[in-house]
Amino acid sequence: MMSASALLFVLLAGHALAVRQNGHNEPDLAVHEAQHEEILKEKIGDVVDADDSEDTAYVLPMKPRRRPEARAENLMELQEESPACPRSSEVWSPTGRTLGQGENGKVVEVTGSGHHGPYALKVPKSPEAEDDAELEVAVMKSSSSQRCTNVMHLTAEKPCVKEGSSDEKVNNKAYVAPEMAGDLDRWLKQVRTTQRNLCAARIIKQVSDGVKCLHKAGYIHGDLKADNIFYKELDSEYCPSGVVLADFGLSEKINTLMYQYDGYYYIHSTHLPSSLFIGHRDTLNIKVPRRNQVYVREDIDMCSLQQLAKGAFMMEVKVDLMWGVCGPMGFGRS
After folding, report:
1. What is the pLDDT of residue 195?
2. How many Å apart are CA 153 and CA 140, to the nearest integer?
3. Which of 217, 291, 293, 309 gets the most CB atoms within 10 Å of its CB?
4. Banded pLDDT at 104 (limits 50, 70, 90)
5. pLDDT of 227-249, one tens digit each?
6. 3 state SS of 98
7. What gap in Å lies between CA 136 and CA 218, rounded to an integer?
8. Class of 78-178 in CATH
9. Is the Cβ–Cβ distance between 19 and 324 less than 8 Å?
10. Rounded mean pLDDT of the chain?
């Protein structure tokens, strides 16, 4: 199998992609039609030259927070909790294992009366987290209509959850999804550089497929980084397999408007292009004049994908952009 360090990926992101990130014509690889969606590989020599004695440092970027006006505009009407589950509802029972927990909620392991094996129940605990959860459900339902293999699947929304020994109640703010083996952030921090190099090509391929399918479903991810990418298992070479995009709390519908983030996050949320931050250069040419808003375009995710490959794997990834260039990304950008 060809080493990932010997691959240059040219990602063709979708329709009418006429402007390239570097502003120059790319080498003729025989396929550059606008709707071509296959990843092309060309051996050009080692992209990464490292060994186990000098492991590449990897740091996870920060998730930005929406500005108050953005949060208010995106508030979604939430239903009250039902006191009891309807008859014939599938019942989800917690196993007692907590998969993740934070100030805004938690994820617990559950089993379903109509499903085999463990699943993950995400329970938001704040108004902001409730909004995010409902948005995540909408994104996953839309991606399911496109049969997106590399996007997290929604197993159940508003699940009937067993509480205590006998009580069963509907949680209108929660949802159930498949339980994953781990996330890419933890995997990156556990393995050495040589292992990252071995697995890089197949990981980026799966992430790219997920991003493109999500765009077909009408959404950008909006927060594409390693801890929002999960995998079902590790293959025989200890590489993540069954990779899926998850955590869609910052997703936005394509061709709508979104508020920019505070400029503070520019130096911390370095997986996102500068166009998304107040007071910084609009390299993607998506800003609305005289307003702290930008047009939601697929280019936002494509820049994040490029930075993921570079920051996590030191892999060069070129993406076709519709409007401008990604600009400075990664830690240390100015």
Report:
1. 97
2. 6
3. 309
4. confident
5. 999 999 999 999 999 999 999 99
6. strand
7. 13
8. alpha beta
9. yes
10. 82
